[in-house]
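I'm stuck. Please check this protein.
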Amino acid sequence: MKLSLDTPSCLYWNALDTGSDLIWATCRPCDSCSGQTSMFDPLQSSTYKSQSCSASSCMELDRHGCTINQFCRFRQGILATKTLVFDDVAGTIELPEIVFGCLHNEGAPNPGLVGLGGGPLSLVNQIGSFIDKKFAYCLPPYSNENNSMGQLKFGKFTDFSGKEEVQETPMAPGGSQGTYYVFNLTDMYDLVVHRRQNSWEMPDQSS
């Protein structure tokens, strides 16, 4: 998804992950980020603020440390806050002081990630009061012959429509699984048939 960080607004591509909590972005300076141009620059931000080691958000991280300046460190980055900008049907909405990680190392396959998990630092919980802690993600058809893209919606208006029948599967909190969601499996028959119809066979190499 494209995420707009800070004001003035600037769009960045980010991967979605329902199994992660933290929002993070690749930030400047990053000497090891060869060929990567889409990076967030804290020095150009009007709302960026590094979080201290004693901040409650820092304590929410499974693993964290302190820099020499007593800022909260995770992996090869710094925990901070900034303004997130969303486009809504009513216009542009700015959400201040959203906690995110500023990564200064090319150690990840994506330039950024949006955690949608159940933990306190996930995007869903940080903006929970604004979206009633509701979101829905529509996946393209299995065959995806039209190269269609998925859709992500927040809040109460999360209904999807399309030319084909839209099938819904609720995601339940994982309970003992912590930040993860679980699916309540009720039937496997349709899934098995669908996989068989879209399966492929290895060529016969016996001859």
Remarks:
- Confidence is low (pLDDT under 50) at residues 191-207.
- The longest strand covers residues 91-103.
- The radius of gyration is 20 Å.
- Helices lie at 56-59, 123-126, 128-131, 189-197.
